[in-house]
Design brief:
By secondary structure, this protein is an alpha/beta fold. It is built from eleven helices and 20 strands.
């Protein structure tokens, strides 16, 4: 039987392994770290005395690759969220509070309702977003729509900042259009927010590892592939520090490493080379009773608050301006936003700051143009990763789609 070698155990690599194992392929997965998951990971934090996620990864009810993946690994009930799309916001500067409440269907009659749309906007404001749906790959969002006004500041900018992890004014209009096509354009049924419960690892990683082991997959943690031995048109071996794995003509390799690692292994492959950071803060205090589980902040350093039973978590996207700040100063600033948003008082509770300095590629037109396709010049080598050309920004949905695509290509390139 031919074997699939997966290099990289982030979500894209795990998704490829799951799909290939489901096809009956023998799978070996190499991961340099001591656990699977990559940036989608959870760990026990001694400061908080709790298991926390490295960041707050929001998925949506319409994320089809997420749904397929969770069903396959037996974790279809691992996400929690409201029955209808509803998003609460607070303007920290002015004190205004409101809820965005779209209707389920694709015909957006909610934009005609004062109680459902963003206060201070009118229906025609929303229709002016339509040019994003047909934007070209070289256009920035600011080339296509006016990046100002109430709707921009109170909905579109926060939404796109979270989805693209790049200042929307400089970000790719085509990627923004892809986000809108899969969310606002499909109706509220497609963008009901979903949060992993009780943790990212429990939802996306641990069930997948059990699933793979049950199907005979060989998972090797702490195993770094340091080089690929390349023949004329195929990979002939994988080089690890202690040994070399020779490949048979029927074997296939899925390279699911970060873009900078992929570039080191395949120097002639163009990959994104500019990145944006994310800062997350976790506070050991429960959100007030009745507070929304997710709250968007306007005119604040913090952007989204997530309330859990044992903690409040904060996310700041495209956080390059603050990522180098002192950790305690960051905690103090972000706690100030949390306290105002939730009406809390008292001293700074126990906290933890998690910084991802290269969280995603910069979602600009120039960087998007550097995203490679999954297929490569080598017949038995395919790429996976949320940074490859999936048509979406670097999200969990993008990572899982890339794994599916890689598995499909792997199957078609070599016989089982």
């Amino acid at each position: 039987m031919s074997r699939a070698y997966i290099v990289g155990g982030g979500l894209s690599g795990v998704a490829a392994a799951v799909a290939l194992a489901g096809q009956g392929r023998a799978v070996t997965l190499f991961e340099a770290a001591g656990q699977l998951g990559g940036r989608c990971r959870s760990y026990f934090d001694a400061t908080l005395g709790a298991t926390i996620d490295n960041g707050n990864h929001l998925v949506l009810s319409g994320n089809q690759a997420v749904s397929r993946y969770l069903r396959t690994i037996g974790a279809h009930d691992a996400l929690a969220g409201p029955e209808r799309a509803e998003f609460a916001f607070v303007d920290i500067k002015h004190g205004d509070r409101w809820k965005l409440a779209p209707n389920d269907g694709p015909l957006p009659w909610w934009i005609f309702s004062d109680g459902r749309r963003v206060p201070g906007t009118k229906a025609s404001d929303y229709t002016r977003l339509a040019p994003l749906l047909t934007a070209g790959p070289k256009q920035r969002i600011s080339d296509v729509i006016l990046c100002e006004g109430v709707l921009w500041e109170r909905l579109i900018r926060p939404l796109l900042l979270a989805a693209l992890n790049t200042a929307p004014e400089e970000a790719s209009a085509a990627l923004a259009g892809a986000v809108l096509r899969e969310t606002l354009a499909k109706g509220g049924q497609a963008y009901r927010p979903r949060i992993a419960q009780p943790s990212l690892a429990a939802a996306f990683v641990e069930p997948a590892q059990v699933h793979l082991v049950a199907r005979g997959a060989d998972i090797r943690l702490g195993a770094r592939v340091r080089a690929l031995t390349l023949g004329t048109n195929e990979v002939v071996a994988l080089e690890l520090p202690e040994h070399t794995v020779a490949l048979s003509p029927e074997d296939v390799v899925v390279l699911a490493t970060p873009p900078w690692v992929t570039h080191d292994l395949l120097p002639n492959t163009t990959t994104p080379n500019e990145f944006r950071s994310i800062v997350n803060a976790h506070f050991k205090i429960a959100a007030p009773p009745g507070a929304p589980a997710m709250l968007g902040l306007i005119n604040a350093t913090a952007e989204w608050l997530f309330g859990f039973a044992d903690r409040i978590s904060v996310t700041v996207s495209a956080a390059d301006a603050i990522v180098e700040r002192d950790r305690e100063a960051l905690a103090t600033t972000l706690w100030g936003d949390v306290a105002k948003a939730y009406g809390l008082s008292g001293p700074l509770p126990p906290w933890q700051i998690v910084k991802e300095k290269r969280a995603t590629f910069a979602a600009t037109p120039e960087q998007a143009a550097r995203r490679p396709k999954a297929a490569t010049a080598w017949r038995n080598l395919v790429l996976a990763g949320d940074w490859t050309d999936t048509g979406l920004p670097a999200t969990i949905e993008s990572a899982l789609r890339s794994g599916e695509t890689a598995a499909h290509l792997a199957r078609s390139r070599t016989p089982v």
